[in-house]
Each structure stands twice: as C-alpha cells, then as structure tokens.
Amino acid sequence: MRRRLLLPIPLFVLVSGCAGIQSVSDDAGRESGLIWSLFVLFGIVTAIFYVAVIAFLIAAYWRRGGSNQDGLPDEGGVTRERSLRTAFFLWTGAVIGSLSLLALASYFTDRGLASVNPENKPMVGIDLVANQWWWDVRYHYDDPSQNIRTANEIHLPAGVPAMISLKSNDVIHSFWVPNLAGKQDLIPGRINDIVLMPRRIGHYRAQCAEYCGLQHAHMALDVIVESPADFQRWEAAQRQPAPAPATPLAQAGYAYVTSRECSTCHNIAGTNANGTVAPDLTHVAGRRTIAAGTLPMNRAGLYAWIADPQGAKPGNNMPTVGLNADELHAVAAYLETLK
Amino acid sequence: MTVLSGKDLPRDGEQLQGPALDARLARTWGDAPGLWGWITTTDHKRIGIRYIVTGMVFLVLAGLSALWMRLQLATPENSMMTPDRYNQLFTMHGTTMMFLFAVPIMEAMAIYLVPLMIGTRNISFPRLNAFSYWMYLAGGVMIWVAFVLNIGPDAGWFSYTPLSGPQFSPGKRVDIWAQMITFTEVAALAVAVELVATILKQRAPGMTLARMPLFVWGALVTAFMVIFSMPSVALASSLLIADRLIGTHFYNAAEHGDPLLWQHLFWFFGHPEVYIIFLPATGFVSHITEAFSRRPVFAYPAMVLSLVTTGLLAFGVWVHHMFATGLPRLGYSFYTAATLAVSIPAAIQIFCWIATMWDGRPRFRVPLLYVVAFIVTFVIGGLSGVMQASVPIDLQVHDTYFVVAHFHYVLVGGAVFPLLGAFTYWFPKFTGRMMDDRLGKIAFWMIFIGFQVAFFPMHFLGLMGMPRRVYTYPTNMGWDELNLLATIGSFVVAAAFLVFIVNAIFSLARGAVAGANPWDAPGLEWATSSPPPQYNFPHIPVVSSRTPLWDNRNHLPVMTGLRVDDRELLLTSVMEAIPDVRDPSAMPSAWPLWAAMATTCLFISSIFTPWAVVIGAFPVAAALIGWFWPKSPPGPEPVIE
Amino acid sequence: MSSPCRASLILLAFILLAGCDREKRGMTHEPKPETMAFVPSGDPRASDYENNAFQMSQGQRLFMWMNCVGCHAHGGGGMGPPLMDDKWRYGGRMEDIVYTILNGRPNGMPPFKGRLTEQQAWQLASYVRSLSAQPRQDVLYSRSDEMSITEPATLKERNAIMNEPPAPGHGPGK
Amino acid sequence: MRSRPSVRSRATFLAAAACILLPLPASQIHAAANGARPAPAATAPEDGQWTMPSKDYASTRYSGLDQINRQNVARLKLTLSWDTGSRKGQEAPPLVVGSTMYLTMPFPNNIIAIDLAAKPRPAVKWVFRPNPRPMSQGVACCDVVNRGAVYANGRLFFNTLDGQVIALDAASGKAVWRTQVGNIMKGETITMSPLVAEGKVIVGDSGGEFGVRGWLMALDAASGKVAWKAFHTGPDKDVLIGPDFHPYYAADRGKDLGVHSWPADAWKIGGGTAWGWVSYDPQLKMIFYGTGNPGPWNPEQRPGDNKWTTGVFARDIATGRARWFYQSTPHDLYDHDDINEQILLDMPVRGQMRQVLVRPARNGYLYVIDRKSGQVYSADPYGYINSASGVDLRTGRLIPVPSKAPQEGRVVRNIGPTASGAKDWNPGAFSPRTGLIYLPHENLCMDEGVMEANYISGTPYLGADAKMYAGPGGNRGFLTAWDPVRRKAAWKIREDLPLWSPALATGGDVVFYGTMDGWFKAIDALTGKLLWRAKLDSGIIGQPITYRGPDGRQYVALVSGVGGWAGAIVSGPLDPGDPSAALGFVNAVRDLPKRTQAGGRLYVFALPR
C-alpha cells in the first residue's frame, strides 16, 4: 500500500507528457487547458490529503503497542484523547478549508468555461446531429447555399471559436473531444450548445461518451484543427459536388451507387443519390475513417466495409447488400475518387 | 374459558432459567422440522443467512460477468463476443451488483445482526421479512433466467431513456429489467420498514440512542434512505414499463415527455443508493476497528452525526450525474458544493477510525486488515470523487474509465472490503466456527493487490480518453497494455474470491469452534452463543454503556418476565429504551411464500399484458387475506399491561 | 430451489418454447443473394422475421426512412392504402408483403428491389404486420419516440386477415 | 368593358335591392357598394356558358345569369342526375359550351361529353379515355383528383394525372395532340386545370410532397409544343428571371436567389410546384399564379427563404418572363402552398382605384396586391391564425410566431392554420353585385411533428406527421363573405365540416357551395341566409357551375363525389384509427365515413318549368 504514496504527482507529469489524440491531459483547446489546470490543482490537493491519511495510518500501525487495553481506561488516556481531539478539529478544518478552496477554483474555472467566446470573435457555426451510430455534421452560414454537410469528421480553424449545436435523432449521445473540451450530451428533443476554442493545430479524436446501444464503441469523430487558410481551402473543397468518375471502373461504380441501394440512404452531391438517413458520401474519400472511426479510410477499409458492414460493425444500420466481385471493385473504385 | 391471571403464565425469571428456560423457549421459538420449517420460518437469522448466501451467489454471477467482459477487453478490437452479448453482460453486472448484491446483502447483514445487537428475540414484522426474501429471490432469478434465454437487459443498469424506451429497446429485455427493479424495491422497502421498527422500538432496556452500536445507526439511516429514495426509482421504472407496454409518453420528448425525467428520478435514487451501500459498511468498519483496536470508537457522536449528515446530503447530489446534460449551468454549482460537502463526514469518519487504531492496541487479524484495505482504497475513491464534484473536471472524466475506477474504488473499497471483513468477523457468530486465518490472509492479499492492479490503471485509461461501456476499442490509442493489466488484475481478484469461498466452506465444516465471544468484542451479539439460539437471548439483556460486554465482563444484567409459552418481544421507548410494552411476534407461516408467488405471477405477467395487473391482483389479495386471517381468539391477557 | 423460482422458471421456459430467438439481434454476416426463389406458401423466413422484436424494430426504422410513412401514414394510409385494417389488396402474409415491397404493385406501389435488400424487405414486412397486431404479442412494441398517433400495438385487437388471393399475375401465388 | 346585363336581371336586382334596402346605384351594377369590380379586360360578356373552371380570366366564378334568384331558389328541383361511375374525389366542374356538357373525371381522367339538347333526355355524346399510367396514382399526394378541363376555340384542353397535356377536338372527342410534360418517376403529376389564353396552354405540375422541382410551362395551343418553361427553384435563367423582373420588395431582389436561399442542391428537389389557379390580365398580358410548398415539409432541412416557393408570380404570357414576385410565406413552415386563386379586381385602395389581385392565401391572410407592381396593399387574416402575428407591409414579410415553428424531435401543438391552410385550393367567388368575395374555407388546427426526411426519387419527401382537428369554436369550416375594400368579413356561416368545394356566385344574388357530407346549399349573397339545400349521394368537393341550357333556362350543375385530401378518408378508404393518415386530415374528419359515402354523380338543378 505504500507504493502508491508518491504516485499521483509524477503520474500527472506522465499523463500530460504523452497526451494522445484522445486525451484529457491536453491543452489544445482553451477549455481543455483550463480544465486540465484545475485537474492538476485538484490532484495535488487530494494527493496531499491522501498522503496525510496514509501517514496517520502508518503511525497507528507503528504505535500498536499502545497502552490502552481492552477498552479499559488507562492513566494516559485523557491526555491522548485531548490531543486526538485537537487533531480531529484541525483535520476537519483542513478538510473544510481545502474543499472550499477547491470549490472556488472549480467555480471560477466553470465561469471561465461558460464565458462563451470572451473576445466576441465571429464563430464557426456547426450543427452536429448524432445518430445510432454516426455523426451528421452540418456547417451553416448566413447564405444557406454555402452550407456544408459531411459526416464523422469536423474541421476547425485554429484560433477561431466554433459554436456547435448538438442534437440527436434517436437516443442520448455525448459529444466529447477531450483534447479540446469537456463533454456535452446530445439529447432528443433538446438542443445543447458547446463552444470549442481550438488553439493548436492537430488531429484529435472524439468519441460518443454516453452509452447509445449496440455500437456505442464505434461512434468516433475525427476532429481536425487546421490553420484558417487550410480551413478555408477545406470549406471550398467541401462545397464542390462530387467529381465525375473518370475510369470505366469508377463509372460502373457510379452507376451502381447512384441507382441502387446506396442511393436510398446516402447523399452524393451532384448525383442522383440524395438519401439523408446515412452519412454524406460526397467527399468520403477525403475523410480519415469509415463508419465513424470503425475502419481506416483506405482501399482495404473500403472493401471490408462495403462487402460486409455487419462484420466490421455488427448491428449498425447499413445492410449487407451482397455485391458481387465486379460490383464491389466498381463501387470501391468510385468511392475512392470522392476526395 | 378459564381466565388465567398474569401470574399463571410461564415467564422467564428466577423460577425459569438455565436449561429448562432454553428448552421452553426453543419449543416456542423453534421452527417446524425439515422442509416445511425451512419454508415457513420467520426467524430473522435463518432469513438473514438465506439473504446473505443468495447475495453472495449473485456476487459470484456478477463477478463472472465482469470477468467475461474483462476477457473481451483484454485486447483491442477483440471479436470474442458480439456487442449484444457485451451490452447484456455489463448491464447484468451493474444491475446485479447494485440491486441484487450490494443493497440486499447490506440489508441481509442488518436482518441478521440488528436484533442481536440490540438484544431482542426477532425482527419486527417477521413474516414481511420472509416475504421480502422470496420477492428478492424471484426478481433475481427472473432476470438471470432471462439472461440465459438471451432476453437479458442490454440498456445498462441505469437504463437511460430513450435507449431503454419502446423504440430503441425492442422486445422484453428492458421490461424484465424494470420489473426486476420492482421486485427488489418491494423487498428492500419491506426490510427497511422492519429495520426502522426494530431499531426504534425493540432495543434492549437501557440502550438509548446514544448507546446504539454504530452498525445499528448505519442500518437505521440506511433504512430511512431506502424509504425515501426507492420510491423514486420505483416510479421511474413504473413509468418506463407504462411507456413500453401501454404507450404512454412520459419519456417521449416528441410528445413533451422528457428523457431527463428518467435521469432525475433514477439518480435521485441512484446516488443515495451508493450511501445505502456505504453506510452499513462504515458500521462494519467501526465494529471491527473497535473490537480489534481494543478501544471504543473515537468520537462516537461525530461518527453518528457523520452517518446522519451523509444520509441527508446524499439526497442533494444526484445532479452531479447529469453535468453534461445541459441543465442550467449556474445551478450545477449547488450540486458541486453538496457533493464536496459529502466528503466532510467521510473524512471525519476516516480520521476517527484511524484515531481509534492509533489510540488503541490494534491486532491486525484478517477483519482489521480489510479495514486497512478499506481506508487505503476508499480514500482514493473518495478523493477522485472530490475531483468529479467539480463541474469542469466532471465534464472531462464523466463516462470514462476514470469514473469506472472511481466507483469501484468507492464501492469495492468502501463496501466490499468491509463486507468481507465483516463476514470474517461475524462468521463465528453465524456458524459457530472461526474462519481459517492463513487462507483468510492469502485471500486478503490477493484481493487487495488484484483489485489495485485491476482498477488503478483505469484512472489513466479514463484520462487517456477511453469511454465506458464500449465493447471494444481501437488499437492505436495507447490503451492496450493498461487494459490487459486490468484484465490480469480482475483474474487475481476472482482467484482471491475463490480462495475466500473455499475458506468459508472449509471453515464451515472444519473451522475451529468458536465460543460465544471469540474476539472479545464489546457488542451484545456476542453475549449469546454462537450460533445464537432461535430466541437469541434467554433473558433480554440490559445495557448501561456503548460497550456492554467490556463494561460488564462478568455479569451482563438482564431483564425477565417475558412470556415463554408464546412468542413475545419487549418493546421499549424510542429515545431512552425504557421498557414499554410486551408485544407478540408472528408465528411461522407459509403465507408469505404464497403471497410472494402470487405477486411474482402478477409482476412477471404484467411484462406481457397490462391486464395481468387486474387479474393478478386477485391471487395476491387471496394470499394476503390468508396471511392476515386471525388464527386464534385473543389471548387470555391483554397484551398491553 | 424455491417455489417462486421454479414458477418463474416454468413461465420463462414457456416463453423460451414459444421461440427462443425472439430477442436475437440479427446481425447476419453472410451476404444474402440478390434474388431468391419465392415459396408459394410459407416461406420459412417469415416467422424468423415476424417473431423477432429486433427485426421488427429495424422494420419500423425503415418504414420511416424509406418514406413508406409518406404514403401509408402510420398505417392509416393516405396516398397509399391503409395497412392497419383487415383488407389486403395483394395478400397480407409476410411473403405477399415482401413481394409487394420488392416488386411493387401496378396501382402506385413503387418497386423497391435494388433500393432495399431482401433482408430489409422482410424487416419491413414484419413491421407492416405489426400495424394490425398480427405478430405475437410479446414482440410488439407500444410506441415510437414520435408524435402520439395510433393506439399502441400492444393494446390493439388483432384483426383477422382477409387473405384475398393476390391479383392474377401480381403475386407470389403465380 | 363588360356589356350591360339584360333588362330582366336588372329588374330582379332592383327588386332585391329594394327588399333589403341597400342603396346600390342602378346605373353601375358592376361596381358594388364598396366599389370593387372585376378587372374589366379579364371578364367577358355573360353568354350563359361555362368554358373554364374559374369562369373567366379574372377568376370570379360569377355568372350573370339571374333566372334563379333569392326569391325562387327555394323551388330549385333536380332535373338530371347521372352516375359517372367514378368513386374518387370530384374536384372538376362540368363545362358547358353551347349545348354540350363536358365532364372531367379524376384518374383515369376520362372526358365525357353529354349532349344536353338530346331528346328525350341528355345523352352521352362521346367519352375520351386517355388511359394514364396507373403508377401515377402512387405519386398523387391527395387523392387522384383533376380540377377540370378548359374549352377554347373548339378544343378541350386538360391534363392527366401521369403528366400529359391533351387537346381534344370538342366536337368529336378525338385527341388533337398529347404532350408528356411530367415525369411520374420523379413524382410529377398534374392535377390542375390549365389556363388557355393568347394561344398558350399554361400548365404546372403537382408533387410538392415528392421533392420535385416545380415548374410552370406554356404549350402552344395549336401544336402542343412547349413554348416556355419556368422553374420555381434554381438559377435565374431557369426561373425566367431577367432584366424585366422588378419585384416590389427587397427580399425578392438579388441574383440567383433560387439557389442562394437553399442549402446546396436542395433546390433541385425543393418543390415549388404550381398546381393551383392561374389568372390572366389581357390588358397587362400578364398571368398571375402562386407557387407551392417547398420540399420537404420539415423546414429544418431547408434553411433559407426557399425562393421561389410559396409566393405569387406575375409573368409575361408570351415569353414566360417573370415581372414580379411576392413571397407570402418565406421559408414555409407548414406546407402553406400559395397556389390559391387570385381574383383580379379593380377597386379602391385607400381612396384610389387600383388594379389589384385578391388572394386568400393558405397561410390565412387575404392579400390585396397591385397587379402591376406586386406591392401588397393589405394582408388581413380571414381565418384563425396563431402561427403568424401579421404581415409587415413595409418589407412584405410574414411574421411567424417562434413558438409555433416546427422543430425536430418535439411536436408543436395547436398550430393554426393547418397544413391544408385556412383555405385550400377550393376558390371563392366574387360577385360584382355585392362586392363580396365568398370564401369557402376551413377552421382547423393541427399538431405537427417533423423529422428528417429521406429523399428517394418517386417517394414522398415530407418529414412530418400531423394531426388536424377543429379550430376555435369547434366548427371545422366557414363560408366567409369578405369585403375586400373594407378589409373585413361581412358575415360568416359556420359549417361543421371543412369546406372543400368552391363557391359559385350568380347574378340572382345566390351563392352556391357544397359540403363534404353532401349538402348542396344556396344562400343569399347579401345576408348569407340559407335559402335552399339538397342532400346528394356523396360529399361535395366539386365546383358548382351555372349555365343557360339549350331551352333557355338557367341550370345549376355540379358533380358530387367526396375525396381529395380532405375526403380521402372516404374515397381511400383510409383508416380513422390512424389520425396521421392523409397527412393528418383524417383526424379532422373522422366522422365523415358515417355521414357520407364515396360517389361520383352529376347533378343538374333548375327551377320547375
């Protein structure tokens, strides 16, 4: 039990040292930075208390030849009782005092988080709609024809606050990009808002953090923070319709995708595929993952997903269509062109 | 009819004592022999043991489901089991641990121990007690049979709507879960009522509230908490069943119902639930610490106040489960404050226990080892709880493995370790034999180390972004090694439990025979033989201090005059425990069982049709009429003198 | 083992006998062939889909997603005929409904072959039959999370299906 | 200018006027007491015929015939009744040209010519069967109705449900040309009645519930060739918006608003059909018509103003080029198609005579709009409205009530008017004698829940559930006599059921209309007093007409046959167990199956000889 005495403090260092793409101990966002500082404060204070408790316990252990016997009062009892009582009040006071300190720290951090966009910058506006088990991402602008719709991937310009409206189409989900901010639930019938203020360029991963059914585990979201210029390039690219297929194979795939089962649910801008109940595929090949983080976006991933979506993500709502080999090659070839 | 005067009735006293009294009392308080006696018994000890054993079986089942889950999570992108199986498993694990193990076993310990600790012959409402066990058993069996039949619930032990609603949880899985809640509700409320009545009215003369053992205080506070919190979840689950079965819209946001209503109702129960489990455990800790430190617990009034304060504050913290739901942000501050405040009584108690050890002469036998493990572990859980009371921090760690680590530290550390200590401590009282010390120590160290290995890494998994309730995880997230470590730890814990159970079974048969008070403990339960006779005490003891057996080592004063030809209890006043009236205690009866069966039929069939409530009410009514049918003309003397 | 325990066991065994797969989450891994020969009477898949709560709930989802609801409303009909009454123009068996969904019917029902997989058509058929409470009581749902519209299927009286023979040349009976 | 009515009718009128002591100047009977009169160029001398459903280009539905009048209408008797065999909703009027009556049937859209002069009794002359494709029934949103054929220059022009425009030789019943203009695979059907003027056949599509891209086109009446086609969404060149487009309000000005007021690509499946009524001002050479709802119903899927849906267009009839546009319901929230009639009037507005069009819109406001400029002079609620708080005449914008805006995931309760509007397609009639517009309309409210709609070509594109029910007062319909000059209702008649049949006003100061439970009623045009009624075999949603028969008598004719959106519960038949059936209308008329039955019968009434 003693081995843990000094663990907490070095552990904070350890954890913050290796912040991954889905890590609480990061300050890539204004919010996550504030929270992590608060966490470290809490960690230090609680560690001190833990050390105190363990020290007292060890003292009790070493002192076990104490004079008190079998519940019978002894001569030194009154003095010890008095010193214990003093210690008791000191301890209680310390607990209350430091809890108050922590409460205040927490309160002011929370105020800091809640002061949405303190510099009053123009914000990126996003509607994020959760579905079992994928994310529908809609950027909205004053001119609605400039709106962008994508899925399972959010791009954000660094240094620009983003106002994300959270909605759900089915059950409760939770939006959580630990590197940028804390989580916020998406609840059917309600609209929650969260403001992200990304500060550092990078690729982060978000994941649904509220149990939402069979495939809760496979409901991730790539968050790419990039420079404002890159972001504008990305916006412009997203607004383009899907490129026309060039090769005969891709053309065959195009024909299949736009006329068959795929088009019933998926949308590919600029084609006859206008479905809205499944992720938008217009620029699917430009994204990093398939099926909300289930598979990497590459040829193998595409083949695996199209041929057997229920194998990779059992229970998801994409049916196994039963493509033959030619169709599979064609569809995959076409989807690969949708950069 | 001959009218007998009070003097003619056989009573304990100077004329009647020793073996003759024992024989007379055994005849009056004994059960019928064989199976019939087993079915009809109203003895709190037999029912308590039954409860404990059943609770332990559910602990094993829930533990096995945890092991199965840990196997799935041992490696990334594991396809050992389907997500459906995993979801059923974690639902069953949580549900069983919370509803079928933790709450019932704490109440079971109270059922067994409280009458002994306060020096009475039986629990109040003993038939209700029997009934509650059958209900609990039926609910637990129902849900586990359903799991075996692949209709196990899969919406989590918290069953958030609308995921658990009619649209997103097709079939009868969630109905079975919700009805299981109803079963355990009935059982838990019944026991709570019995305990409150027993504790307030049946204490031995002289056992004022200020002399009440701390476990009894814990049981009393817990019982009140059950009474106030359980109706909330009963309401929630009834509304859920109504939504699912007859299409009401309580949780349908589209029709202006509210899925958050569920969360409020559920956590209004769910958070006090944690203290319902924890407070009796603090009672165990106090008793063990006291007995093995050879010193009365330090600052008894502070301990009692802590218990009561915790019980009150527990009802003001439920929203800290809902910080991410987007409720008004400023309002959260209140719940942060309340949650932080709950740690104050816990800190006080921790201090008092250590102070007791410090000031005493602790003998580190197995029960006290568990207390030390409790302190070492629980304080970590408590401190990580302090972190989560903060809204910003909670927004990051909520629903991650950090929380999984936190509440396992709190619940296993705070309740299971004390429970195992208590089990070892009172095992001689239950069985008359001591548990093996060597095996006990082996089990202790395995369980302690295994637990830390299994759950400490989860703190880091949470901080590294791993969410809860995922059936698998991708490989490149840096979570692989820690998950494998957690799985290894969980197997060590499982092995430790195996050792513990083997020890219990072995000791039951071969353990050293224990006397009435093998630990030289101060409580009244040690004043009678091990195991205690059906009537608990030949004479009702009289108490004049908090540690009666230490203060009256040679001669425990008793009170006489209770009838021995009929089951009679002594009722005392609520505050000062001044003898008040003599009261009859119910005879054995099979009606509680029949009533439980009728209620079971009603509950189970109402999963399938609402008409079951109407039709099923008739057998229930019939059983209750049978239960309360006057058996004999009033006795020859008025009960109240 | 105690008696209530035994009683619940017996009851649950009864449920089990009635069909242990009623709760199975269908996650077929093997692709289904595009076209399957129709069995004129009693396709074995009919009861698999109809008596499975999960398949029915998937059908419910599809009923919204595939815009069935646009024409048939929630069973009362509109542009298309009602689906919750006892009249079936083209037959009310699972097989008939699947045929109707996949191949369409001449008076306005568009064919969904090539837009839906066969499995989805079976799921839909299961849901369509639930609109008139045809499947077993214990797989029916009470409501969906939307506007309160029809009486819950769990409380509905089951209409006998008027199994009109499918119109000549348009049904699986051909 | 309009010719003076016959001496006899004037005498009748004077008698009537004397009766009720209304001081109408005898010399100026066209302009009623309030000074309103039909646009002179858009009306023709009364010839006792009925050649187009709206009666004239001004859409007055007024016939100068006055043989049947307030005094004698009570003696009206059935003279002819003939079962058409159809059991679907009958929204089309009989046409009477010379001594022939032409009936237009709902799907399969047969045209039946009846020789009224045949002895001993009228007889079928010919029947034309266009045989439209049965699949079209599956994409017809609200019953398989047709709103009538048009007679012009010896030809009958009509549309079929499957998207054909057909010209028939009226004498022989032989097709002169057939042009396929709609694609039912995309959901385009045609139910409207064409407008024929200046050698053009003006036709628009239906299918706003299917995500079509709405249009209006002109076909050459002689050849059937498409002369022009104007879309109602998309880039300006598709909408035929050019330099001569001068909308009055700033919100309607700008380049390619039909693209920029939609999310990307949404305009391609954005609805904005034209399935209602077209009026024509021969003086200005402009047609006026409204555009339908944007698709889908769920407004959250189409942020923006959704130009050019739910508004009124003025176009040059020769080129189709837009002159002005006014959007009465920008970003439509409730399927408030703006396709209702526009009655072309010349009337005093704030003391000045203006050339206006009067349109009782679905959204519950009755607009008075300048025909030349598109300026809205007034917009007054004629029915119960709680979904909007008014119209800002400065910007022309409707002011919606936020709490009534549909929102995904949450049902909005008690919205008035409903999706079917304060008044749907069934047009009112204007009597130049009273200056009143007789509006048969509804008094309904609804609960609506919207959800994301999926677009699958050829299937509905709605994303909404609705439940309609009676509005304030508990009655579901009104006949409102509206005074457009004084901007208020002169009087109202409460009707239990929603009114789904158009009104007819006559020179005898009688107004005819029918109810969905089959009562055909004649009321006093001045007071609204019920003068006569007859119960028909089926509910009435059809257009009553009046004509002078070959024998010189005045007849009143209509075809019964309940159906349409409102009557689909009977013509379907639909199941009242589902209140959302027929897009929620079933809930409002659950009692209808008990009160009437499906039918389709021609009734002709006249005074006894």
Question: What report would you give on this structure?
Answer:
Chain A is built from 9 helices and 12 strands. Helices cover 40% and strands 17% of the residues of chain A. Chain A has helices at residues 8-17, 30-62, 77-114, 228-239, 248-259, 261-265, 299-307, 309-312, 325-336; strands at residues 124-131, 134-139, 148-151, 153-157, 162-168, 173-175, 184-186, 192-196, 202-207, 220-226, 289-290, 295-296. The longest helix of chain A is centred in the N-terminal third of the chain and has 38 residues, at 77-114. Chain A has a 5-stranded mixed beta sheet with strand order 3-2-1-5-8. With 174 residues, chain C is mainly alpha-helical. Chain C has one domain (29-155): Orthogonal Bundle (Cytochrome Bc1 Complex, Chain D, domain 2). Chain C has helices at 3-18, 44-50, 53-65, 68-72, 94-103, 118-130. In chain C, helix 2 (44-50) packs across helix 6 and helix 5 (94-103) packs across helix 6 (118-130). The longest helix of chain C has 16 residues, at 3-18. Chain C is globular. The N and C termini of chain C lie far apart (56 Å). Helix content of chain D is 6%, strand content 34%. Chain D has 6 helices and 39 strands. Chain D is globular, with a radius of gyration of 22 Å. The model of chain D is unreliable at 1-29 (pLDDT under 50). Chain C binds chain D through residues 64-67, 69-71, 73-82, 84-85, 106-110, 115, 146-151, and chain D through 134-142, 209, 411, 447-449, 451, 453-454, 456, 458-462, 465, 467, 568, 572-583, 586.
Radius of gyration of chain D, taken over Cα atoms and rounded to an integer in Å: 22 Å
CATH class category of chain D: Mainly Beta
List low-pLDDT spans of chain D: 1-29
Main interface pair? A-B, 95 and 95 residues
Total beta strand runs of chain D: 39
**What separation lies between the terminal Cα atoms of chain D?**
34 Å
Number of helices of chain C: 6
The structure class of chain C reads mainly alpha
Largest sheet of chain C: none
Global structural class of chain D: mainly beta
Strand order within the widest sheet of chain D?
Answer: 1-20-21-22-23
